[in-house]
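Review form for a predicted model. The reviewer records the input and the model, then writes brief findings.
Reviewer: anonymous (R2)
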Amino acid sequence: MKRHSVYRLCMTALTGLLYLPAWAQFTLSGTIKDAEGGVLPGTAVLIEGTYKGTSADTRGSYRLTNLQAGTYRIRVSLLGFEPVVKEVTVNRNETESFELQKSVIVVDEVIVSATRVDQKSGVAYTNVTRKELEKQNLGQDIPLLLNFTPSLVTTSDAGAGVGYTGFRIRGSDATRVNVTVNGIPYNDAESQGTFWVNMPDIASSVSSIQIQRGVGTSTNGAGAFGASVNVQTNSFEKDAYGEVDASAGSFNTLKTTVKAGSGLLNNHFVVDARLSRIVSDGYIDRASSNLKSFYVSGGWYGKKSFVRLNVFSGAERTYQAWDGVPEKLLKTNRTYNAYTYENEVDNYQQDHYQLISSHELSRNWRLNASLHYTKGRGYYEQFREGEDFETYNLKPIVIGDSVINTTDLIRRRWLDNDFYGGVFSLDYNSFGKLTANIGGGWNRYEGKHFGEIIWSRFASTSNIRDRYYDNDAAKTDFNLYGKAFYQFTPKFNAYVDLQIRTVGYSFLGRAVGLNGQIRDVQQDASLSFFNPKAGLTYTLNDQSSVYASYGVGNREPNRDDYTQSSANSRPKAETLHDWEAGYRLQTQKLAFNANLYYMKYRNQLVLTGQINDVGAQNRVNVPNSYRLGIELEAGALLVKNLRWLVNTTLSQNKIMNFTEYVDNYDTGEQQVTNFSKTDISFSPNVIVGSQLLYTPVKGLELGFLSKFVGKQYLDNTSNENRTIDPYFVNDIRIIYTLKPKFMNEVAFTLLVNNVFGELYESNGYTYSFISESQRTTENVYYPQATANFLAGIRIKF
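Model under review:
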C-alpha cells in the first residue's frame, strides 16, 4: 500500500466511526452529594468498560442517556473524595443517587490540579495513565512511551529509544514544550530543552501525565509554544507493595527496576522507593547508554494536609551519536558513527529534591506550596584533531625555524549548575459555580560553563585540566497567574486565565570592540511578558460538547541566542497567538474529539544561515508564520473484545517570508535568496497514530500499533532535496497478565518494534556552501532501528 494511501485509509475509518449505530434507549439520572448533604458539582460519572461518561451540573445532578438495557458498573469520583463504584441495573428510565465521603487522606493529585485541565476546559489535551505507561515501559524513554498521542513525533539519536531521545508536538521541538514534574519546572533554564536522559526510567515512578497542546493553561517555567507536559510522580498508596520489572531485547538492551512502598504506616506515614538500571548498545555504532537512577519519597498525610519529600537522581553515560549519518551512507552504512575515540562520551548526573505540601484552609480553600532544588554536573569528552592553539588561548610552539600552530587534543566541556526555588497555588472551590486559582513561582538558575584540556599531543604552555574557557550565567524566572472557571448555566461555562512572567538573565556574551575584535563581556537581559487566555464550553447533551479558546504565549531567546550575539544583533522574544475550537463526543462505544487550531507567531526564531556581527550563525526572528491544523481522535469498541484507538493530525505550517543565507567561499560573502510562504522545518502535514487492541481471553491483550509521519523539511526553504521522507512504522505488542493467589500480578510483555523492517529516519539537519562557483549541500540524518524486540516480566507483590 502506498504511504499516502495509508493516512487516507485511516481518515476514512476515523470518520466512519462517527456513524456507529446507537442501540440505547433508556436514561439513568440522579444527584451526587457529600455526607453533609451538600451537592457536588463537577463530579465525574463514568460507565466502566465504556467511553460513556458525564459530570454533575451546578445542582449536583447528572444524566446518562441512550443506554441499552443491562447492568452497568457506575464509577463516581471527585478530587478530594473517596470514589464510589456501584452496579446499577437499567431496564427502564432509572434514578440512582450517590453520596461521596471526604477522603480520609489528602490525595497527591491536588498539587497539580491548578495547572491541569478537564473536559470542561476549552483546551486540547491527552491524559496518559500509569497503566498505559506500564504497557510500553520496557526500557525506552518517555518520548517513545508517548509516541501514540496526537500530533507527537519522536526521535532517538541512538536509534533504539534509549539514551538521547526527544519529541516534537505540533512541529515544535523540546525547547518550545514546557515540562513540569509535580508542578515544578524541568526544562533546562538556558537552552530551554528537556533532556529525558537525565531522568532514566522516571516513567516507573509516574502516576499520570497530561499533555496540553498549544499554549494550554498557565503553568510554571518556560513558555509553551507547542505543548505543556505535566508529569506527576508517585501518588499515595494506602497498602504496602513491591514490584520487580526486568526486560531485555535487541542491541543488548537490558532494564532492571525494583520498587517498593510501605503503604500507610501509623495512619500517617508513607515511604516509596525505586532503583533502576538501563543499558543498551544502541542501533547506531557505539551509541551505547549506561543509565542509573533512583527515586525515594517519604510523606506525612493527614485528613486536611500532607507533606512529601521526593528525592530522585539520574546518572547517564552515553557514547555520542550526535552527528548523525551523512545521506550518502544511508544505503551502505546506516549505523555509521563518525566518533571512534573510545571515550567520546557524555557523562552527567542530575539530583532532584522536592518538598511538596498541601493544606486545606477551609472547605473552599486549599494552599499548595513546594520548594525544590536540582543539582546537575557533568561533561562531554571529545578527541579533536588538528586544533589551532589560538582557539584554546595557547601560544604556538617554536622549534628553531619551525612553528607548530596545531595539535591533537582531548577536551572536556563541563556544566555545573544549580536550580532552586518555589511554586505555589491557592485554590478556591465553591462547590457551585466558581472554581479559581492564584498561583506562580520564583526560580533561579546558576550555571558554570567551563572547558578543560585533559591531553594534548603538543602541550604548548598548557597543563593538564587547563581551562580554555570559563564563564558563569544566572537566570531568574518569576511568574504569577490567576485563573477563574465559572459555570453560568448547567450547560455553559467559561474560564479566564491571566499570567505575568518576568525573566532576568546575566551571562558572559560576545561583543565587537572598537578595533573590530570579538571579546567576552558580562551582559544582562530583562524581559516581561503578559499571557492572557480565555475559553468557553457549551454542553450540547450528556454525550457531546463544543468549546473554543484563545491564548497568548511569550518565550525568551535561549542561551546561544544571547551569548553568540551582541546587543545590536540580539533577537527579540517570540509571541504566539493561539486559537482553538473543538467538539467532543462520548457514547458507550465511541469517544471522539475534533480540535481545530490556528497558531500565529510573531518573531518566531528560526535558522537562516545568516552570520551576525560576531561571526555566529544564530537564529533570527521571522515576522510572520503560522500553524493551521485539525486533530482528530477516536476510541471505539468495535466488538466486545476489540478496541481501536486512532488519532490523525492534518496541518499546514508556514513562514510567510523567509530569507536564506549561504556561505560563498569564493567571494567571502553570503549568497542571499528570498522565499515566500515556505514550510516550517520539521513540521509534517500529516501524523497518524493507531492502536488496535484485541483481548481474546481474560488477561491476554494483543496490540497492533502503527505510526505514520508525513514528509518533513530539514530547513525552511521547502526544497524537495532537503527532506525527511514519510515513514509508516508498525509494532506488535503482546501482554499476558496472571493474578495468582500468592502475589498481586505477573505480567509478560513482548514488544516487536518496526515489525516490517521499515528503513526510515526521524530527524536530521542540512547545510550548504558555495565553492568554485558550485553549491554543495550536505544532508545528515538520524536512522531509526529496523525490526527489533523487547521482552519483559513484571511481578507485583
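Findings: Helices lie at 3-16, 130-136, 142-145, 559-563.
Further findings: The chain has four helices and 45 strands.
Recommendation: see findings above.
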